[in-house]
Write a structure and sequence with these properties.
Strand content: under 5%
Largest sheet: 2 strands, antiparallel
Mean pLDDT: 80
Low-confidence stretches: none
Radius of gyration: 22 Å
Structural class: mainly alpha
Strand order of the largest sheet: 1-2
Number of helices: 4
Length: about 100
């Protein structure tokens, strides 16, 4: 019985995630100075129905999905490029010459 209840909660939260992405990306009013949307309603409804942890999960998953679907590829590539640590000269075993610095 508990597994059936958790399944119902997860399916409802998945629908709320989809609703939040639609409300945030497609049904928003964009003006020059402000963006008006009602995407908080899905997260608020999940918090009212299932508690704060499920609301946190709905908000986090919907933000990840929205950012993945609607950000340009160049921005995602830059995020991946600059967040992955690159090896330095010290990692390759290159020693610094006396009085000169290594180019990066």
């Amino acid at each position: 019985m508990k597994a059936q209840k958790n399944t119902k909660i997860m399916v409802t939260c998945a629908l709320l995630v989809a609703l939040q992405v639609i409300l945030a990306r497609f049904l928003s009013i964009n003006t020059t100075f402000v963006v008006v949307n009602f995407s908080f309603l899905a997260v608020a409804l999940s918090g009212i129905l299932f508690g704060p942890l499920w609301a946190l999960a709905v908000g986090a998953v919907s933000d990840l999905i929205g950012a993945t679907l609607f950000l340009p590829f160049i921005i995602i590539g830059n995020i991946l490029l600059y967040t992955i640590p690159r090896p330095s000269a010290r990692d390759w075993g290159i020693k610094k010459a006396a009085g000169r610095s290594l180019p990066l």
